[in-house]
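Suppose you are handed a protein chain with no further information: no name, no annotation, nothing but its sequence. What can you learn? This example shows the usual starting point.
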Amino acid sequence: MRQLKKMTWIALFFVGMSILPACTSKNEYKLVWEDEFEYTGLPDSTLWDYDQEGNPHGWGNNEEQFYTRERKENAWVENGILNITAIHEPYQDKNFTSARLISTADWQYGKVEVRAKLPDARGTWSAIWMMPGGWTFDDGDWPNIGEIDIMEHVGHDLGVIHASAHSKDYQWQKQTQKTATVKIEGVNEEFHSYILEWTPEVMKAYVDDNLYFTYRNEGLGVDKWPYDKPFYLILNVAVGGAWGSVEGIDSLAFPQTMEVDYVRIYQKK
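A reasonable first move is to predict its three-dimensional structure. Written in structure tokens, the prediction is:
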């Protein structure tokens, strides 16, 4: 499998040389961190940890899942794919289980690329996003510290991909967050690359080579731009919550899985 993926990557490289996507310059970035998921078992513990704190609070969104730790039913790597699976089952004080993986490294600026296939059931809320290093749920200073959402998708609005940036002045509770959406067909049937480019001046989000979100630093301080510090990466599938359950939860459609082909982090040379 490793050799096959390597050969495929080489072939795509040479094809892409003549049609480089808008978000890529082969001389601009270098790869600094990756997981190609070329192994079988639990996610690599040198690269990934698990977020569990905050379960009793529904993560502030009244979510229905319990995020488990090192449980193969909810996070498992096989055949070159990371599977993050939400299951309808009683567990602790919840009726669903899932996993929320966090990278053990963090980065200040760069390009994040996650190639994934998304769940589609009503009630699912899948996300690829970033939070500042060292932050915990109990700090109580969200969203002042900043949040970067590279990809959010809710099952009741199939194919609509969201990218957002949250801060003290720009947050969803006030409906002032910096955000944009794009409609992509087949997100639950095909892998797509969800990409963030982040510099001190601007954030840009893409699906594949489709730029759809641009947020420029206005230079008005940390209340609007708290992003000049290291952030770590989060991959998760939530169930329900203030957004995910707007049209209810189709419990019969579970289990639901976000499949991840690879995660690659680049920084400028």
